[in-house]
């Protein structure tokens, strides 16, 4: 079934922009909403001149920004921990993210946007860890604009590659998004393993004093007292 006759009128309608704001906002708390596909499709059609690529990016970024703060507010409220604890996988991911927020929170918030499931997890972690809005809001704005431009840009490239077939352009954009997201996730996991290795080193396992621990001289001084 060819969906283009149904999709094309929407993609060339002024209603597209508020729709992008809406789906991008709801996607912040309901990940099953296909905001990425909608932004990609808008980017594909933007190659033809309508809709405007720049307005697509701004509308999507605005929705993402609002959705981030909606998720942040919910997770910071009394209902947040209760909702998160109902999903074991989510609660573990949020706990792991929360432990890293004391280091480079802005970088984590921005880069998590490009990881599968990273947006919801990091926003929930920021809320439960009570990251100040003075730090969360600027990072969310940067992340929202970067991800909106990235996603719409992938769609635009797909539309340029398959001018006569928007479906193939959308498929190319989705494929590139999955590949780049998968590579980013692999890099993140390798980095996380490297950070864990020093704690699991043979020196720590044998009960030997690590290099940064107290020196023998200091131990003897404590014994003399």
Describe this structure in words.
There is one protein chain. With 225 residues, the chain is mainly alpha-helical. The protein has one domain (21-197). Helices cover 73% and strands 0% of the residues. The protein contains twelve helices and no strands. It has helices spanning 4-11, 16-26, 35-46, 53-76, 79-85, 88-98, 105-112, 118-128, 133-161, 166-196, 202-205, 216-224. Helix 2 (16-26) packs antiparallel against helix 3 (35-46). The protein is globular, with a radius of gyration of 23 Å. Pfam families: VTT_dom. It comes from Cryptosporangium minutisporangium. Residues 194-225 are annotated as: Disordered.
Describe the secondary structure blueprint for this structure:
Layout (H helix, E strand, L loop, with lengths): L3 H8 L4 H11 L8 H12 L6 H24 L2 H7 L2 H11 L6 H8 L5 H11 L4 H29 L4 H31 L5 H4 L10 H9 L1
Helix pairs in contact: 2-3, 2-4, 3-4, 3-9, 3-10, 4-5, 4-8, 4-9, 6-8, 7-8, 7-9, 9-10
Protein name: DedA family protein
Keywords: Membrane, Transmembrane, Transmembrane helix
Family: Belongs to the DedA family.
Short description:
The chain has 225 residues and is mainly alpha-helical. It is 73% helix and 0% strand. Belongs to the DedA family.
């Amino acid at each position: 079934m060819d969906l283009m006759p149904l999709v094309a009128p929407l993609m060339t309608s002024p209603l597209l922009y508020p729709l992008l704001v809406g789906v991008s906002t709801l996607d912040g708390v309901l990940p099953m909403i296909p905001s990425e596909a909608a932004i990609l499709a808008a980017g594909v059609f933007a190659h033809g001149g309508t809709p405007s690529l720049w307005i697509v990016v701004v509308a999507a970024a605005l929705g993402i920004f609002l959705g981030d703060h909606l998720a942040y507010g919910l997770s910071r409220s009394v209902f947040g921990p209760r909702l998160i604890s109902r999903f074991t996988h989510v609660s573990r991911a949020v706990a792991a993210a929360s432990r890293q927020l004391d280091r480079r929170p802005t970088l984590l918030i921005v880069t998590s946007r490009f990881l599968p499931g990273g947006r919801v997890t990091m926003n929930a972690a920021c809320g439960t860890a009570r990251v100040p809005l003075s730090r969360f809001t600027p990072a969310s704005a940067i992340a929202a604009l970067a991800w909106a431009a990235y996603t719409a840009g992938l769609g635009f490239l797909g539309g340029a590659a398959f001018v006569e077939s928007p479906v193939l352009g959308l498929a190319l954009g989705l494929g590139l998004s999955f590949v780049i997201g998968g590579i980013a996730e692999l890099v993140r996991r390798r980095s996380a393993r490297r950070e864990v290795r020093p704690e699991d080193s043979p020196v720590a396992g044998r009960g030997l004093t690590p290099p940064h621990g107290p020196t023998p001289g200091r131990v003897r001084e404590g014994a003399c007292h």
